[in-house]
Amino acid sequence: MSTEPREQTTATAAVTTPETGLQRVRRWFAENNSSLIMAVVVLECVIFASMSPAFLSVDNFLNIALQISIYGVLAVGMTLVIITGGIDLSVGSIVALSGILAALLGQHFTGSPWLGLLLGTLVGTAAGGLGGAFAGFMVTRFRVPPFIVTLALMTIARGFSFTISDGVAIGNLPPEFQTLGRQQVGPVPLLVLIMVVVFVAGHLYLNRTKYGRYVLAIGGNAEASRLSGIRTHKMLLSVYLLNGLLAGFAGVALASRLGAGVPNAGLQYELDVIAAVVIGGTSLMGGVGSIIGTLWGTVFIGILNNGLNLANVDPYTQKVALGVVILLAVLLDQWKKHER
Fold this sequence. Notes:
- It is a single chain.
- The protein is mostly helical.
- The chain has one domain (about 65-335): ABC transporter involved in vitamin B12 uptake, BtuC (Orthogonal Bundle), CATH 1.10.3470.
- The protein contains 15 helices and two strands.
- The protein has a two-stranded antiparallel sheet with strand order 1-2.
- The longest helix has 29 residues, at about 115-140.
- The chain is globular.
- Residues about 1-15 have low confidence and may be disordered.
């Protein structure tokens, strides 16, 4: 007697098996991550507002937005890298190096400050792109793990920052150089508007273009993506290049905001940025993530830091709180994986 009907019956039974309560909870978390983090942000605001009346002021919210603007620009590029299954530990050092280069050009062209700002922005951004392209080339051509490549690049870029600047801040810059970092459009800082534009562009890229779908596919299964015709090496290289360009621009913006290129700028920025991406729901295993989730993750960290400052919590305890939040986000990601 053929066993085919029995196999079909078994398969049908497996398909129609009702979900358990735990499975339904996992599926809800997987499908509503952005809504969940948004709700947590609202709860966060309620808690800190009860601790400090100044928290809910418009000026404080604008201050939070300005504080997270650099992190937000970096987080968009980092989201794409992590979705592909990679990581980039070098963005903080790239921020410092690009800021130093931009400040040197701003200082050199004091007689033509706008030209100095333009050239500084172009050169600083390009330096970040070069670093990203190098990381992408090493990952795709020589199959060096992203963690190792970017760890080496982090050290190299930081070393160049101190070498070029002789270990001191590059200051005495013309007021025009600070336009990018301190200019306001009405009551809103220009950097905040730039961050919003970067997030919108990143969201459209990931969700409305075929290249964004390729990024998600590569993170899900790189070999299957290659066999289906996607040029995985080219896509990975472009992702690391874009991430480097955003890091370079963020470095120029930070130098403009500080009014100086500082060799130890961006210290541990990569950790906060990765935290924002992970808290926003992007999986460290790759293949899953969203720019909207990263936005909420960035806002969450900004509100957490600001609220704890207003509550006079010491910086060391703040680091402990952030570490606990990161750990919980990773555990939640591992839990959700059972449903995917």
